[in-house]
Specification:
Bound molecules: 2-aminohexanedioic acid
Helix content: 25-40%
Number of strands: 23
Radius of gyration: 24 Å
Structural class: alpha/beta
Strand order of the largest sheet: 12-15-16-11-10-18-19
């Protein structure tokens, strides 16, 4: 299957670095990393491509993205399977990720005719003032293993219609899916005809490659998805040269289950959000505040559902929980569980699964941890299927605890009480970038702006007006009179 997929995307497996599947630890390809020289050359190519692309009318740029969307539609199954093979997410989610790419392409095509600026009333007679959005320049996209293709597409589809070129550094854990996307992009570019060469490129490597992109003044915008630690290191490097960042970092997403909640829906939402993608989404549900009156119904129901979760090969139908990405991830999970225990947590689940059949892979039993309070371990994002559960009696206290973590990505409440629902999404409610009512925190649609506050980094990608981050704003004032009135009524007669 591996060889078929690689040849489907014309990927040559060649180089000193072995790529392994988290499904069984088997080698699925070999790659070479870029070095300082090749990264430099690619940035130079991106700058050249940008200079040509910025003058192509935006709706025509949209046509390229439309063709790319067509390639994705035609290759959805193969790309979804490659995502499953390389990132270990179940096939349904692998396919969902490609669908997310298709959706953002459609969005971007429409957007290519809607890069609107304002016309502003000038205070001076015979003057017109307007705001125009111009392409920003080459955009670097640094992405994580857990959404190896969709997050790049959110950035790339918008950047391309905005008139930018794109340089993508995928996670070193998922280079093959990036090469597959590159192959599909190149097919689209060929059909498009006259797209500049090197409009979208991939650079492979480790942290040093990311650093080169962060430092380079030829790249005005760096969009990075990953851990808070990564963002904390990268952001000052970009800021030091006055580049802009779009950061999508850690989350510590919560759900409040109120007394009136529809518990059957809440259980289903919790399962998808807490154990889907083996707890490796930035939007994964990690904290659950359950009202005292429903705690003893909801939590046993959850434990029962957890006990029957089908853990296994993510490419097999029926599997709901695939492997963790690697050994380090599993060890982080174990460490977090031990430290939660030391803080008084009662752990149900956890530990390694399928060690006999998959000795070189790291499957874990998702864990529910009943916590006496929101301890330091709960406030920390561990990228694994651990759900910390806490009991509450008073809505205000639950809301305060909800917001009392350093991260601010996604959040939700299950309630039929209109006041609670409205208060949750009001100014004094959830402090997150995403706030849902009767929906889990993960699986956002592309139409909204995606991202969050505090340690999540503040960036917004995908829908709404997130496109503005990929462009530069210009205020232009035109004088069509025969006089030269000055703003603020200043007299300056020579
Ligand atoms: C991520 O985990 O980095 O809302 C992105 C979601 C997906 C995107 C997650 N649409 O869960």
């Amino acid at each position: 299957m591996t060889t078929d997929l690689l040849s489907h995307f014309a990927i040559t497996s060649n180089g000193p670095h072995i790529v392994r599947s988290p499904i069984d630890g088997a080698e699925i390809g070999r790659i070479a990393y870029d070095d300082a020289k090749s990264v430099d050359a690619k940035i130079a190519h991106a700058a050249t491509a940008f200079r040509a692309w910025r003058d192509v009318p935006a709706p025509r740029r949209g046509e390229l993205v439309r063709l790319f969307g067509e390639e994705l539609r035609a290759n959805k199954d193969a790309l979804g399977r490659l995502v499953t093979l390389e990132a270990g997410k179940i096939l349904q989610e692998g396919l969902g990720e490609v669908q997310e790419m298709i959706d953002i392409c459609d969005f971007a095509v429409g957007l290519s005719r809607q890069l609107y600026g304002l016309t502003i009333a000038s205070e001076r007679p015979g003057h017109r003032m307007m705001e125009t959005w111009h392409p920003a320049g080459p955009v670097a996209v640094i992405s994580a293993f857990n959404f190896p293709v969709a997050v790049w597409a959110w950035n790339a589809a918008l950047a391309l219609v905005c008139g930018d070129s794109v340089i993508w550094k995928p996670s070193e854990k998922t280079p093959l899916t990036a090469l597959a996307c590159q192959a599909l992009f190149e097919r689209a570019a060929k059909r498009f005809g006259d797209a500049p060469a090197h409009l979208s490129q991939v650079v492979l490597g480790l942290r040093d490659v990311g650093e080169m992109l962060a430092k380079d003044t030829r790249i005005p915008v760096v969009s990075a998805t990953g851990s808070t630690r990564m963002g904390r290191e990268l952001a000052p490097v970009v800021a030091a040269r006055f580049g802009k960042t779009i950061l999508e970092l850690g989350g510590n997403n919560a759900m409040i289950v109120a007394p009136s909640a529809k518990l059957d829906l809440a259980v289903r939402a919790i399962l998808f959000a807490a154990v889907g993608t083996a707890g490796q989404r930035c939007t994964t549900l990690r904290r659950l505040f359950v009202h005292d009156s429903v705690y003893d119904t909801l939590v046993p129901a959850l434990k029962k559902a957890y006990a029957g979760l089908p853990i296994g090969d993510p490419s097999k139908p029926g599997t709901l929980v695939g492997p963790l990405i690697d050994k380090a991830s599993f060890e982080n999970m174990e460490r977090a569980l031990a430290s939660a225990k030391s803080e008084g947590g009662i752990v149900t689940g956890g530990g390694r699964a399928l060690a006999d059949s998959h000795p070189n892979a790291f499957y874990a039993h998702p864990a529910i941890v009943e916590m006496p309070s929101q301890t330091p371990t709960v406030c920390h994002e561990t990228f694994a299927p651990i759900l910390y559960v806490m009991r509450y009696t008073d809505f205000d206290t639950a809301l305060a605890l909800h917001n009392a973590v350093p991260q601010g990505l996604s959040s939700c409440i299950f309630t039929l009480d209109m006041q609670e629902a409205e208060r949750f999404i009001a100014a004094s409610g959830s402090d997150c970038g995403i706030a849902n009512v009767n929906i889990g925190p993960s699986g956002a649609e592309i139409g909204g702006a995606f991202g969050g506050e505090k340690e999540t980094g503040g960036g917004r990608e995908s829908g709404s007006d997130a496109w503005k981050a990929y462009m530069r704003r210009q205020t232009a004032t035109i004088n069509y009179s025969n006089a030269l009135p000055l703003a603020q009524g200043i007299e300056f007669n020579v």
